[in-house]
Amino acid sequence: MANNKNIPCVVFGASGYAGVELAKMIVNHPTFSLEALFVSEQSSDANKLLSDLYPKYKGLLDFTLVPGGKANIEALKSTLSGVDQGLIFLATPHEFSHDIANSLTAINITVLDLSGGFRLQDPDLYPEYYGFAHQYAGQLSDIPYGLPEWNAHNLKDKALISLPGCYPTASQMAIKPLVKSELLTDQCTPVINAISGVSGAGRKAALATSFCELSLKPYNLFVHRHLPEICQEVGRKVIFTPHVANFDRGILATIVMQVKEGTTLEQINMAFESQYSDKPFVRLRSEAPHINDVAHTPYCDLYWQLNGTDLIVISAIDNVLKGASSQAIQCANIICGLHEGLGLLPTSQTQGAI
Ligand SMILES: NC(=O)C1=CN([C@@H]2O[C@H](COP(=O)(O)OP(=O)(O)OC[C@H]3O[C@@H](n4cnc5c(N)ncnc54)[C@H](OP(=O)(O)O)[C@@H]3O)[C@@H](O)[C@H]2O)C=CC1
Ligand SMILES: CC(=O)N[C@@H](CCC(=O)OP(=O)(O)O)C(=O)O
Predict the structure, then answer these.
(1) What is the pLDDT of residues 70-94, one digit of tens each?
(2) Which of 20, 104, 123, 350 would be 339's cystine partner, CB 3.0–4.6 Å?
(3) Are residues 199 and 148 in the same domain?
(4) How far, in Å, is the centroid of ligand 1 from the Cα of 42?
(5) Distance 44 CA to ligand 2 centre (A)
(6) Is the CB–ligand 1 distance for residue 54 below 6 Å?
(7) How far is Cα 301 from Cα 252, in angstroms, rounded to an integer?
(8) From 12, 17, 226, 249, mutation site for ligand 1 pocket: most ligand atoms within 8 A of C-beta
């Protein structure tokens, strides 16, 4: 394993919630080095230090936020052109990622997109769920989906990786083991009720997410853009109702499913254990997780209970970490041939690094 910080990393959207977490994890990573941080060309935060926006990171993240105009992006490309391996993280709005990702891919550079710009394989869904027509329709089915517990084998030597959405991460981690083990009835439509902290809406203030306005509310019933993403990845119809509540971090998803007649608790335990026993970021719990068990951590906590043929699975993650930034670092580690937990877990747990 390389010990030097010799893999340059760039973050677009660095001033946002996902971006600042990426910057922090890269700075603290033993092998990645922070090369540059970008915001939009017109950003009111351009040329400030990231630590000006987040004073708790004074001394750690005193990096300038570069405005992403054409000249600065061309300069970045020329800086990265000679590197052996480099990573560009896009923690930017969906349409911006869609527009810029292909122009950043280059020999020895992998672009990891945290937005939904490339998540859906069916381009016809983009106008309805994302509000723009996809210009790279032919590419979509070849772009690996960065859910490492399921797709680690498919991430290396790729120019562009598309990271899952936050609700889809929590949902798939709960549903996929049961689909793989063929324990769900053919008719079962998983019903997902998920509650997210308000950081899921991003950093820019909005009336609907202000402290006095927000309590706990369902939103985007039947039309949320994560609905087709979850269906695509679990291979069956689901019913998904997102909620947002007045806490800052985390998602707790409660998922109701029907298993086949005669299915035992042992079979369900086995479905989860066989998939996740060697996965360092999944914790199979003996009691229902709370949001605060996972907030500010890179873990997905799972718990289930069976009553006859009715199964409830609870899945909890930090939306900004396992739902976005730490998951991107997990993927980046895998892409670079490192232990997936490097920089995220205690060193004693990442000794198997290549
Ligand atoms: N927050 C979460 O829980 C999750 C977020 N994601 C995804 O990650 C990405 C970032 O999310 P999040 O950090 O929450 O968002 P924020 O709103 O907190 O941050 C967005 C970042 O993008 C920059 N930005 C905004 N508009 C543009 C533009 N036109 N061109 C370039 N940069 C721009 C912003 O800076 P400025 O406006 O100053 O330029 C800011 O740095 C999004 O795609 C989101 O969908 C994925 C999963 C979970
Ligand atoms: C609470 C809240 O508003 N959550 C966001 C989803 C979080 C997220 O960022 O997901 P994407 O990567 O798909 O954008 C929403 O519902 O739009």
Answers:
(1) 999 999 999 999 899 999 999 999 9
(2) 350
(3) no
(4) 14
(5) 23
(6) no
(7) 9
(8) 17
Total number of domains constituting the chain: 2
Q: Is residue 2 part of a domain?
A: no
Which residues form the domain of 47? 7-163+324-349
**For ligand 2, which residues put their CB under 6 angstroms from it?**
115-116, 165-166, 196, 200-201, 225-226, 242, 244
Q: What is the mean pLDDT of residues 264-290?
A: 98
Residue 175: which pLDDT band, with cuts at 50, 70 and 90? very high
How many alpha carbons lie under 13 Å from residue 354 in its C-beta half-sphere? 8
**Any domain includes 244:** yes
| pLDDT at residue 354 is higher than 60 | no
**Assigned token pair, 65:** 């936020």
**Residue 39 alpha carbon, nearest atom of ligand 1:** 39
The residue written with tokens 């009111």 in the block is 44
CA of 57 from ligand 1 middle (Å) equals 19
Q: What is the CATH number of the domain that holds 132?
A: 3.40.50.720
Nearest atom in ligand 2 to the alpha carbon of residue 163 is: 12
Active site residues: 166
Long-range contacts (CB closer than 8 Å, 24 or more residues apart) made by 121-124: 121/232, 122/228, 122/232
**Atom number in ligand 1 closest to CA 44:** 38
Same domain, residue pair 11 and 157: yes
- pLDDT tier for residue 193 given thresholds of 50, 70 and 90: very high
Dist CA 116 CA 274 (whole Å)? 30
Same domain, yes or no, for 312 and 335? no
Residue 117 CA: nearest ligand 1 atom is 43
Residues whose CB falls within 8 Å of the CB of residue 135, separated by 6 or more in sequence, listed in order: 98
Same domain, yes or no: 157 and 179: no
Q: Which residues contact 99 (CB under 8 A, 6 or more apart)?
A: none
Mean pLDDT within 8-29: 98
Q: Cα(45) to centroid of ligand 1, in Å?
A: 13
Ligand minimally distant from the alpha carbon of residue 66: 1
| Ligand 1 touching residue 88 (CB < 6 A) | no
Say which DSSP state 46 is in: T
- For 67, the 3-state DSSP assignment is strand
State phi, psi for 55 to the nearest 5 degrees: -60, -20
